[in-house]
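Q: Structure tokens for this one, please.
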Amino acid sequence: MALIVLIPNVIPLFFMCTVMVLAGIDLKLTTAILFAVAFGIAVDDSIHFMSKLYGELRSGKSMAYAVKRTFLETGKAISLSTLILCSGFALLLFSAFGVTFYTGLLISLALLFAWAADLLLLPVLLGNRGYGVPERLRKRAPIG
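A: Here is the predicted structure, written as tokens:
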């Protein structure tokens, strides 16, 4: 399960790296720290999603129904927290100081990529079969 959940959290780091290469941003200590910050914030959304999913599965719901309910309920919270965090980091784009500007740019982009990966890719990776979900939590019942 940890490997499945790790995939949507690593993808934003690759996008950050791509943006750095395309923008000509050098990899220094200050920009390397941004990877750790972005990863830490991105993992929070995945933990929120998986926590709700396990709660749904423990209550006896089928895997497909649990993923659907989790997506509908935590999707709002994840989207709102991402919007707030991106807005806060986007304010740094108005700085004339290079490190501060790049911090706002890279973290905001990483959060947007993490939001998309958590809400679009994670439910697909979990799928209807529930790979990585313990057998005692899986229920092979129709949706509903």
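A few notes: Residues 2-137 form a domain with the Multidrug efflux transporter AcrB transmembrane fold fold (CATH 1.20.1640.10). The helical segments are 2-23, 29-58, 63-90, 98-126.
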